[in-house]
Amino acid sequence: MLTQPRSILLLVLCLASVGASAGDIFVRQAEGQSTVLSNVPQGDGFSLLLAAAPEPVAPVSLNPQPAATATPLKTTLLARARTYQTWVDEAARRSQVNARLLHAVIATESGYNPLALSRKGAVGMMQLLPATARRYGVADSRDARQNIDGGARYLADLLRLFHNDTRLALAAYNAGEDAVLRHGGRVPPYAETQAYVPRVLDFYRRFSLASL
Fold it and tell me: Of 79, 166, 174, 176, whose Cβ has the fewest other Cβ atoms within 10 Å?
């Protein structure tokens, strides 16, 4: 584009008003004091006059994935859940904790392996630490029925402690209630806990779609 110097300011204001949709605008002073403006500069002597507006960044949604679009459970995991369904339902009734939430915790903690053992010494289906097992009268954490019952009662207490805030109760189940309280009633900034809570909630949505 060829224009006189006095027209440059007007042109720049026009371009800025539309967000420089054509891209970066470059300027070069040509012979005879004429001015060349271009969004595709060719040759030497051009300098940047107006930078294009950056592409807008799409906002990241913090809302949980709707249940209707949750990924279905694997057939093998669903089969394991059905194997222990009677005991989970039984523990859910006694503890007044949603059975599908218990399934979600079990799936996350052990994948329904009653002999699971963590590096920290947590044992069984709901990965009870020895102190937690003693607290809830679980004599044998490898006994799936006992383990589910103890874990359900522990989760019920956490839900009461945190006023039925499922996210905080799950964070406490993973990191301990003291950790949640120390961090002002928020999910502690531990990488494991930060990953654990949404993982359990994802399983919870998926179990809500499953026919158990």
Answer: 79
